[in-house]
Amino acid sequence: MLDGIEALIALEKYGTVSEAAVRLRLSQSAVSKRIQALQTELKVKLIEPDGRRVRLTQDGYQFLSKARPLIIELKNLTLNSDKSNLSHFALGLSDSIAGSFGPYVVSETLKTLKTLELDFHVHRSLMLLENISLGKYQLGICTFDENRKDLYSAHLIDEPLVLLNSEFRNRPNKNLPLITIEENSATWKNVGSVLKKDYAHLFSNNVLFVESFMAVYQMTKVGLGNGLIPLGLTKEFHLKKEAYKKLKVTRTISLVTRKTVAQLDFFEPFYKELKHNIEVYFEN
Prior knowledge:
This protein is an alpha/beta fold. The chain has helices at 2-14, 17-24, 28-42, 58-80, 95-98, 102-112, 125-133, 186-198, 213-221, 231-236, 259-262, 267-283; strands at 47-50, 53-56, 87-94, 116-123, 139-143, 152-164, 178-181, 207-210, 226-230, 244-257. Helix content is 46%, strand content 24%.
């Protein structure tokens, strides 16, 4: 069954039997036989034609969502017994963190933990958490939903939000709308109620909800409104302090993983070094 699951994962990722065969270093016939054997064992159809490609059926996706975490945990068992202590993991960054302090602090962390190798992925926080839950990624840096009990989170920092003045002037234009991240985002769910309670005056005019903090930044830059963005973005763009006001509202940034991954030897040193580098970044 494990061979069949491996073949199914490759087909999901690459979309053709030929490409999956190349990646698995098998013949196309061997890949097809593994899929057929898995379908026979499960008594369900797992793949179907999609033009010149193949795609997973609904049953295929449902099965893989359950099987993938088990495959990851089996790989983790191998990592635990690896005498070289070389670890290779997939790390996801939320898009706003990837666009600000994320790449730098991870790079600094890897300079210290030289045996650790990471593959990088960028998603919105909600999608990132789903990929960790499904076992596609082992690690994630994002705003965490505390209501989720299926994942483990380690606190990294409470990142302040700032009010960015329209056109980066020395004071906000009170006649313009507020531009902020959309309401179904992880950050808004984390801070929205506090913002509306403690900074009600910011919402007295129209409010524009957009899909990314980078869009908030760009729209504020050209004078379409005053923007709410994380402090990290102001540091990355080296904005003068007169152009924004730090609010007493923070979004919680966490290192998220599955509980089985958090028990591996690499996790604690990685977490501590990452947290240290984030603290240094925001102190400077």
